[in-house]
Amino acid sequence: MKKLLAMTAVAALTMSVNVSAQEGEAVYNKACQVCHSMGVAGAPKAHDAAAWEPRLAKGIDTLLNSVKSGLNAMPPGGMCTDCTDDDYKNAIEFMSK
Asked: Exposed end of the chain (fewer CB within 10 Å): N or C?
């Protein structure tokens, strides 16, 4: 029984360690493109480097906090219900280039 419990614990730990961030484009396609493709309600358009430049100048942590807390018309978390901080960062990086 102890061996089974130990194997289960190792398997659970291995699975949690192997969970990786979603690709920025995937996050954009499932959650961000609704607003960021057309600049809805002042959202900076994806791949408009000039629109993203002043936002990026504030730092990635500031942008991350804005996404998580919501900003202007963007609801907290944007439209992504399962995103991690790394997922959001990857989406920001994808959209800002």
From this structure: N
d(CA 13, CA 80): 25
How buried is residue 24: exposed, middle or buried, by Cβ count under 10 Å (0-12/13-18/19+)? buried
What whole-number distance in Å separates Cα of residue 92 and Cα of residue 88?
Answer: 6
CA distances from 21 to 26, 43, 53 (A): 10, 23, 24
Distances 17 to 3, 10, 21, 30, 66 between C-alpha atoms, Å: 21, 10, 11, 24, 27
CA–CA separation, 67 and 93 (whole Å): 13
Task: Supply the pTM of this predicted model.
Answer: 0.78
| 58-70 pLDDT tens trace | 999 999 999 999 9
- The two three-digit tokens of residue 18, written as one number: 């192997």
Q: How far apart are CA 37 and CA 29, in angstroms?
A: 10
